[in-house]
Amino acid sequence: MIPAFRKKKCMLQALHPATTLTLALSLVLVSLITDNPLFQVAVIAATAMLAASAGVFREWLSWWKICAVVGVMTLIINPLVSRYGSTVIWRGPSVPVLGHLIITAEAVAYGAGMALRLAAVIWVFALVTLAVDPDSVLGLMRGRGSSSALLSALTLRMVPTTMRDASELLDAQRSRGIALDKGSKWAVLKSRLPLVKRSMSTSLDRAIGLAEAMESRGYGSGRRSRYEERRFGLLDATAFAVAALIAAAGIAGVAAGVLSFKYYPVLSMRYGAPAVLLMLAPVVLALGMMVLSEVWKRSNWLRLRA
Amino acid sequence: MEEIELVEIEGLSYTYPGRKEPALRDVSLSLTPGEFVLLVGASGSGKSTLCRALNGLVPHFYGGRIGGSVRVAGVDTATAEVRDLARTVGMVFQDPENQMVTDNPVSEIAFGLENIGLERLQMRKRVEEVMASLRLSQLRDKRISELSGGQKQKVALASVLAMHPSVLVLDEPTSQLDPISAEDFLSQVKSLNDELGLVVVLAEHRVERCFHFADRVVVLDGGRAVFAGSPEEMARWSRGHDWAPLPPVTRLFLAGSENGVPLTVKQGRARVAALAAKSDIRRVDFPPALPGRPASRNISVAPARPDTPASRGSDPVCCIETRDLWHVYDDGTEALRGVDLSIAQGEFVAVIGENGSGKTTLVRHFNGLLRPSKGKVLVRGADIKDAEVASLAAGCGMLGQNPNNQLVADTVVSELAATLAAVGTPAAERERMIEETLELLQIAPFRDSDPQDLSCGERERVALASVLVHKPPVLVLDEPTRGIDQATKDRLAAYLREYNSLGNTVILVTHDLEFAAECCQRVLLMGSGRILADGDKHDVLTDSLFFTTQYNKCFRGVADGVVTRSEALSALEAMS
Q1: Do B117 and A4 touch (CB under 8 A)?
Q2: pLDDT (tens digit, 9 = 90+) per residue, B111-147?
Q3: In what order do the strands lie in the sheet with B24-31?
Q4: Closest-CA residue of chain B to A134
Q5: SS3 letters for B437-458?
Q6: pTM for this one?
């Protein structure tokens, strides 16, 4: 099961949700605009540090399975469909759709680079899932968006309940001797169709119950007020600065060609002090956030002024 | 001084859309501030509908036809919106899962306050106040999905209380809770009634936990309020109405009691002590001592030992056995810790214990729904580790906590036919087996009905029928009495006893100790994933301080060993 958000005493959770999202967005942005695999590694390392500072490193790491599946698929598919690259490492037979199979070292490297990029994005998403309260993110929406936010919150909340209902339904049917996984795909589908109806009916009952409960607690009676009002503070300003610096490092590196990494026709990369400095930027900035987070935990002065 | 009426119901009749029969018929009732009113009646008697009429959900939310009027604090609910009545009438529903909007207790409690546009400072004060008073403060950083059923229901109560209602309506709020959580919840409600003067309207099936709290009991039957009066008056009234729900201890002393009847175990104990003193009896040993057990009685009453495989003298055939059974869930919870157990064919076993003690986890191993983390489960001597659940179903039928999960077909007959087809019953025998089961469970009149259109009790019987139809030699039921009325419960007990008398094994997971004592011969008490006590129901229940019946608590020290109603009546007879 994928671990979910848990409230913890950490700086990342004390930030305004918009700040944390901006920080995450800056990491995703630089990951998407740069081709350099070393920079992708730096983004992943920075994300890991932020996860550690939020006390969710183990849960964050458990997303490696998703990264591995997506990464392996990219690593396999790209060399099969790409005809670029000058270093041929294998010539295969002709297959329908794909034609002659030619695997080049550059295409394999490009697949690996893409896998790293996807892993970086997935791990940033994991960090947001684990360290940012979904209710507070949805609470960012105001006015007309608030109904959609409420609907999203309800949907998120009902997911575990619906999954549990479905699991209980399947168990009940298996206990009656109904084999739900036997036979052809059509037979499996046919045996499960009545359960879909039952499952829908249970969800509908729950939805009606929830609507009743909401109306009984005055939902829709007029303009709503808000219980939580998060304000931006000193720490938010710091985190915004970190996000801006990470984004600037990536954009500047790409614009100036310092972070340039070419896969085709042969692998080539620019070396030099500026490249190293820019690649280290996300790691150093995340390290700074990590240190600040530790200070935040120990310093009442900082917590009270944040 | 004349009391001001906070709620006035006059000639209320209501029919749901698409229904011919009214759910409420000419109900008139008035409630004064600070009153605690208990609504009782069978399933479908109109309790939930009456609750919903108090805050305007009926008719605003459901539609339908309404006659008469409901006025709350002078406001006619037919003309006011439900959301506007929310400040006056707070309502807690049956299933806590269906009333949580957010995923955090604090924002959940604040939800209603945000809806009525309260200022932030006011909201904060109210949220903190209700959290402190309901002892929820330690849950503030938890997610709703991490809370137990009892905690969720308390959050629901808190979210309603924060709106400062004058009337608190609770529609079977404890039906999804274990006894300890239920008792805790109802005690909180009672203290709110005592301390804040809230009008409490509570609809309940399990009246033993709240009967003595009530200032007034209203009995509903077929949508009519057939009785309204104090608990003592209701007990007297019920002499001519056997179906009326009463706490076991009250019902026990009902016959022949000219004076008041006891409403609580404490009063019951006093009555027993008085009777014992009057008849100069120091101790009644009940049931008579077993061979090898010391006999220390002054009076012996009729033997009530059940007919067990062992008592029949036959060599019991072991049908389910577990050896050093451990089960560890993915989150690391050790639900079972080295359970060694043997159940013989023909036994009727109750598995009791608090929530999380491992009861359900244990029985879900019997048909392979769960696999041991360590140890073995043997069914008729064969290890079932590689057997599929569907293939084990022919030998072990299981009815889960929610009967609705059992019902997926369009008619009752096709529901039963699906089970027979699944377990491979020859086509020639199916019709006969279906007819037998329809007769046994008295559901033949509904044979062509859609199970979803039936009442709660009827659905429970159809769900049971869908398991019983192929006559599994082992039948496992998980909490079959949760949320059902006394009449349905009595019928269920009768079916199960009959099924067991045919030589089948019945295993019952339950919190309902009275039901367990009436049906079973053997009781397993579980705690922390281990079997804490295992033996004859008299031994296990008598030896427990809390996990025992009201009868046993009443007669403790005077007639030890009394656990069922018939035994209690015999003991009373012996004392008189």
Answers
A1: no
A2: 999 999 999 999 999 999 999 999 999 999 888 888 8
A3: B24-31, B7-15, B65-72, B75-76
A4: B103
A5: HHHHCCCHHHCCCCHHHCCHHH
A6: 0.81
